[in-house]
Give the backbone structure.
Amino acid sequence: MAKILVTGGTGYIGSHTVVELQKEGYEVVVIDNLSNSNIEVLNGIEKITGIRPAFENIDCVDYVSLDRTFEKHINIDAVIHFAASKAVGESVEKPLLYYRNNLVSLINLLQLMPIHKIKKLVFSSSCTVYGQPDVLPVTEEAPIKPALSPYGNTKQISEEIIRDTVHANPCFQGIILRYFNPIGAHASAEIGELPNGVPNNLLPFVTQTAMGLRDELKVFGDDYDTPDGSCIRDYIHVVDLAKAHVVSVKRMLDKKSGQQLETFNLGTGLGLSVLEIIRNFERVNNVKVPYKIVGRREGDIEKVWADPSRANNVLGWKAAETIDETLRSAWAWEKHLKEIKSS
Ligand code: WQD
């Protein structure tokens, strides 16, 4: 079976993708610098699949280490590139860290892949590239607007770098996956989202507040032009997202596409507001989430949800998990973390 290198493979989406790749029989090599994850994640993967992936603790920004990794792990058929910094707020405070980490790692990868005869790349992008779309649901043809954060800009620039690289190298093939809002955790609760410190994202803050680790959730604004005034997003189960990567790799390896570069929105097509997420989370898990409405967060867009029809029709992939199941899995993961801490 084919061999896949997963950069950022101990991260939230990366680890769930490693599990789904192994379930489909792929051999997986994980590289990660553990800057925003920990090596314990490999234990979780092994508990789920029975297979501990090969692991190299290296930073993709380090060209020589990355080259050595390709020399050591030969016959790689494709790369899935997750490794990147991803906190929108932090990127505003530390732009150069984001441009260096997210762009240099990609450029190193694209330079080294052909040297090691690897021609297929799946790239982790984000709906952030759209900014606030003019038309909803948003399709892949929507205009790319000026980024609202350095993080979003690194995703836009990365897509351009891949586009130009593919154009210059006829044998190179790429699939760009634009994620909407990944949430939830694997049903086993052996892996999930492990935010460092105070969570930036909504769901881990909700689950930590419900667990009593946070006093209350701050809802960033209820004066938007939405039915209940809070922002709307397209929340997708991380396992559904992971499965889309397996389908993308399979499509490239089976040479199912005549195109060198394809781009897909990975969302459910359903927009939910922050207040709806809170209410659904409380209902599904029979817990309370104390919250307070505060001012808007800088850089937040008002509303975005996907038109996932291209991924549905071309990849044959569709988000399958309901929002109830997704929110249930997020809570199960938070309870698992509490058990681990108290053991
Ligand atoms: C969702 C909604 C907040 C926290 C970003 C990136 C995206 C991806 C996911 C990496 C917003 C509100 C949040 C809180 C709140 N990043 N919120 N209180 O900003 O849509 O997307 O993270 O893969 O690329 O852009 O996600 O979870 O931060 O926010 O009210 O404590 O929840 O205002 O409306 P976001 P988020």
